[in-house]
Amino acid sequence: MSNLDKLLFGAVCLLFPFLTNAGEALLFNDPGLTAYKDDEAIVGFYSTESGRFSCMFMFFTKRSPSSHTDEDGFEDVKIFTYVPGDGSLAFEDRDKTFDIDGDLYRRGDEWIIRTSRAQAGCENSAGTFIFDRADFRATSYSVALKIPAIGIRLIRAKSYFYDYNNGKYVSRKSYLTRWNGVILLRRRREFSYVRFVDTRANARTVGRVTTGWIHSSDLVDPFPSLLR
Fold this sequence. Notes:
The chain folds into two domains: about 25-145, no CATH class; about 150-225, SH3 type barrels (Roll), CATH 2.30.30. It is built from one helix and 16 strands. The protein has one helix spanning about 5-15, and strands at about 25-30, 35-40, 40-50, 55-60, 70, 75-80, 100-105, 110-115, 140-150, 150-155, 160-165, 170-175, 180-190, 190-195, 210-215, 220. A hairpin with a 4-residue loop joins strand 1 (about 25-30) and strand 2 (about 35-40).
C-alpha cells in the first residue's frame, strides 16, 4: 500500500462518512486491475499498456446460481467481459464483437480472471486471461486495499483536475483523457472527486496515483443500468 493510498483511505473515512450507500473499491497488487463491490455485485476493468500492446476490457459478475467452490477453495463466479464502443462509452453502445463470457476465481483476497477466448488487445505482455485457474500460466492478483467509493467511471473527453481551495475550484495543469478509468469517491454539485492510477507498464510513472476534482459531466458509467 503506497503512502498516498494510506492517506487517501484515511481521508475518505474521516471526511466522507456520509457515503452510507456506497460500496467499496478494490485495489490490487497490479495497478492495471480495479474492481468495485456493492452488496454481491462486482464490476471492474483491466487496462494496461506495454510497449506495442494495449489490453483493456470491462467486466461484471452475472447473476447466476451456478457459482461453486472447488477443492482448492476457489469460488467460481461467472462474469461478462466487454469493450466500450467508440461513441458514448455507455454499455448499450458497446462493440458487441468483444462480448466474452468468463470466470472470476476468488479465494479470500486472491483473484484469477479467465475469459473464454482472447479479449481485445490481450494475450501478450499487456496481460493474459485465457488460461484455466490451475494452469501455471494463469495470472493471480491479490487485493491490496479496500476503500469506500461510489463506483467506477470512464472519462468521456479531456478533463482537467481541480483543487478545491477557499470555496473555489482551481484548475491544475494535469488532466485525464478519454477512456481513462477512475474510481469515483465523492460528488459535489457539478464536480466529482476521483482517484486515477497510471497503468502504463512501459512508463516510469506506472502505479502513480492522482486524486482530485473533475467536472462530473466528463464521467460515464460504463456498466449496465440494471447494476446501478
